[in-house]
Every structure is written in structure tokens, then in C-alpha cells.
Design goal:
single chain, mainly beta, Histone H3 K4-specific methyltransferase SET7/9 N-terminal domain, 2 domains, three-stranded antiparallel beta sheet, about 10% helix, elongated
Length: about 190
């Protein structure tokens, strides 16, 4: 029985310590182009890395695999409210990213595919109202983009072709909903 305790206790302690991770202060970071590689004791680190504020509040946590961001990446405001949540696959942004205001409300919601913005991007005012909606395809702004005033009324509609050039009718509105300006574009040029 004592032999079993002797063998199991270290395994439990090792399991707990790997769950906790390593403080960012104990990690060396080497930047290679736009990629951060995390090292501990001169080896690429795999596992959880965290940072705490001077008040001992968690302000950053993420996972790495072979030194590269991998999995969920989170930043927090000093009071512990989530500031940003992203997902990585071996150093490359992949999937949903959300950013928040200090009051906890969503400020931006977007998606990445292989490091490029891809799909719908929603941006919000601090009061929770929609501020902007646009679409990306492989990092290029395409299709219609719509902007709103903080009261929810339409402010502007613009559009882009598949190469990201201005295209179609661009319309601006005043806060009462009246059209103030319209310009039509075709492949980046005024029509």
C-alpha cells in the first residue's frame, strides 16, 4: 500500500503542476518574422503559460505546442474581466476571435482561417449596439460593409469586389436617416 502511495503521489503532483503552467516571466520569447516562439530552459515549451498583474490577478493565459501558440489564448483586464479570446493552431490564428470592452460587453467578433480574416466581422459600440458589419475572404475585405451610429441607425453602406476594390453604390446617411452622399464604383474607380 505504501509503495502505491509512493508511486501515485508524484504522478498527482506532476499532473497538477502541468495544469497550472508556467509564468510568462520564466519564458524566453524569440520572434522569427511575425511568429513568437516560447522557450523554457533553451527548449521549445509546450503547455500553459500565464501572466498575473501586480495585484495577483490573471491577465494573460495561453497554451503552446513546440513553442508556438496553440489552442485558446486569453487576455483579461486588471479586474479579471475577459478582454480578448482567440484560437491558434501551431502559431497561426484559426477560428473565432472575440474582443470585449472593460464593461464585459462584446466589442468585436470575427473569424480567422489560416491566419487570415475570413467570414463575417461584427464590431459593436460600448453600449452594445452594432457599429459595423463586414465580410472578409482570405484576408480581403469583400462584399457589403455596413456602418451604424451608436443609436443603431444606418450611417454608411459600402461594398468591395472579390479583389478588395471599391465596387457598387456607396451611400452615406445623416443621423436622421437621410442620404448625404452617394458614389458608384466599378472595380475601384468612380463610375
Amino acid at each position: 500500500m505504501n509503495l502505491i502511495r509512493f508511486l501515485i503521489l508524484p504522478l498527482i503532483l506532476i499532473g497538477c503542476s502541468s495544469e497550472k503552467g508556467v509564468s510568462l516571466e520564466k519564458i524566453d520569447i524569440i520572434t522569427n518574422g511575425s511568429v513568437n516562439i516560447h522557450f523554457q530552459n533553451q527548449s521549445k515549451y509546450s503547455g500553459r503559460i500565464y501572466k498575473k498583474s501586480s495585484k495577483n490577478t490573471l491577465i494573460l493565459e495561453f497554451n503552446t505546442k513546440d513553442g508556438l501558440y496553440n489552442g485558446i489564448y486569453k487576455e483579461y483586464f486588471e479586474d479579471g474581466i475577459l478582454k480578448k479570446e482567440s484560437n491558434y493552431n501551431l502559431g497561426v490564428l484559426q477560428g473565432r476571435e472575440r474582443k470585449f470592452f472593460a464593461n464585459g460587453k462584446l466589442s468585436e467578433d470575427l473569424n480567422y482561417n489560416l491566419g487570415n480574416l475570413n467570414g463575417v466581422r461584427n464590431v459593436y459600440w460600448i453600449n452594445g449596439m452594432m457599429k459595423e458589419i463586414n465580410n472578409f475572404k482570405n484576408g480581403i475585405l469583400v462584399g457589403e460593409t455596413t456602418y451604424f451610429y451608436s443609436n443603431g441607425k444606418l450611417r454608411k453602406t459600402i461594398s468591395f469586389d472579390l479583389q478588395g476594390r471599391k465596387d457598387g453604390l456607396w451611400t452615406s446617411y445623416d443621423s436622421e436617416g437621410k442620404i448625404t452622399k452617394q458614389t458608384e464604383f466599378d472595380k475601384g474607380k468612380v463610375k
